[in-house]
UniProtKB/TrEMBL annotation:
<dbReference type="InterPro" id="IPR008775">
    <property type="entry name" value="Phytyl_CoA_dOase-like"/>
</dbReference>
<keyword id="KW-0223">Dioxygenase</keyword>
<protein>
    <submittedName>
        <fullName>Phytanoyl-CoA dioxygenase family protein</fullName>
    </submittedName>
</protein>
<dbReference type="GO" id="GO:0005506">
    <property type="term" value="F:iron ion binding"/>
</dbReference>
<dbReference type="Pfam" id="PF05721">
    <property type="entry name" value="PhyH"/>
</dbReference>
<keyword id="KW-0560">Oxidoreductase</keyword>
<dbReference type="GO" id="GO:0016706">
    <property type="term" value="F:2-oxoglutarate-dependent dioxygenase activity"/>
</dbReference>
Length: 336
């Protein structure tokens, strides 16, 4: 794909010897210039030299939507990610946004296998439910899948998604809160009822958000999501019991949000939505005979403090109310 056919605003990430260098290229011409002349001001000279070499041997291909991979003959990888301003504006106005093809077809296969392995294994680190419980009909969930699998960690910790989250939220830095595999199982499947996420999270301030990356095509038949546009502006309401749900809209009476039409988001496998922790959302039951497979990752702005609320991820840790959520469980994944 010739570079001059590309347009938009890109984040260029260069991974070299496990270090990551990021730069924003406002135009393909600038990216071209970087490739040719190693002109990025943030690249150290030693790296700039190899960057030059990399440019000479690079092949460039464009993934279906917004990822552009530059793969060198030696396997080094440069990824360019478009985060168009209209996506950021849409997220801030509506509390959710869709990105198609956030992974390549090869990555999708890798991810299906990696998350499938974690779901199939018994583990001390990730936590799931018993298949006999009522919650399992809503979600077969495993929290912190990345702690069990380097192959999942590659995606959970990937700066591609965290940088999108950072840009959407406007935060200077983004930390991981946790990931979770969300399988909606076939057979007596229940919808995920309308809820906000923030009431469950032990955080003092809103701002955290999730990516919901689907590994299967999703629609109303197998558990696609719905969102109420603008509902993140209503504030934090009561937490909903996902097994015996209260009606979230009862808590929102008089806000106008109870009259707002939800948006159904059907997606192809490998696509994702990002949603704000206060956005009202719902997922349909799975009426098919296959699991609906999703990897969701929750990101929080760097600086988020612990509210003291009971949560599976902070249970048994030394965090006290008001402490910064940081450390090896909550690494910084993207930074301005
Ligand atoms: O996957 C689902 O069914 C629900 C997901 C959800 O509620 C979330 O990611 O916050």
């Amino acid at each position: 794909m010739p570079l001059d056919r590309l347009s938009g605003d890109y984040i260029v990430l260069v991974r070299k010897k496990r270090k990551l260098f990021a730069e924003i290229a406002r135009s393909p011409a600038y990216f071209h210039f970087m490739l040719r002349h190693s002109a990025s001001p943030r690249l150290p000279p030693r790296f700039a030299r190899s960057f030059n070499a990399l440019a000479k041997s690079a092949t460039i291909r464009r993934a279906p939507s917004f990822i552009i991979n530059v793969i060198t003959e030696k396997g080094a990888e440069v990824n360019m990610f478009e985060v168009p301003q209209d996506k950021i504006d849409f997220y801030r106005e509506n509390g959710f946004v869709q990105f198609d093809d956030v992974v390549t077809p090869e990555e999708l296969e890798e991810l299906r296998e990696a998350v499938g392995d974690v779901m199939a294994a018994d583990s001390e680190r990730s936590t799931g439910q018993s298949p006999n419980g009522a919650y399992y009909k809503v979600l077969n969930q495993k929290v912190n899948a990345w702690r069990d699998s380097a192959a999942v960690a590659k995606f959970t910790l990937h700066s591609r998604f965290a940088e999108i989250a950072r840009r959407l939220s406007g935060a200077d830095g983004i930390r991981l809160f946790h990931d979770h595999a969300l399988w909606k199982m076939p057979g007596d499947s229940k919808p995920t009822p309308w809820h906000q996420d923030m009431p469950y999270w032990p955080m003092n301030k809103p701002g955290a958000l999730s990516i919901w990356l689907t590994l299967d095509d999703v629609d109303e038949n197998n558990g696609c999501m719905m969102f109420v546009p603008g509902s993140h502006k209503v504030g934090k309401l009561a937490g909903i019991n996902l097994v015996e749900p209260q009606n979230l809209f009862d808590y929102a009476k008089g806000t106008g949000i109870d009259q707002t039409k939800p948006v159904i988001v059907r997606m192809k496998a490998g696509s994702a939505t990002f949603h704000h922790g206060l956005t009202f959302h719902y997922a349909h039951a799975n009426g098919t005979d296959k699991p609906r497979r999703v990897l969701a990752v929750i990101y929080m702005p760097d600086g988020t403090t612990f509210s003291g609320r009971q949560h599976i991820v902070t249970a048994g840790t030394a965090f006290r109310e008001g402490d910064l959520l940081k450390g090896r469980m909550f690494p910084v994944l993207a930074k301005r």
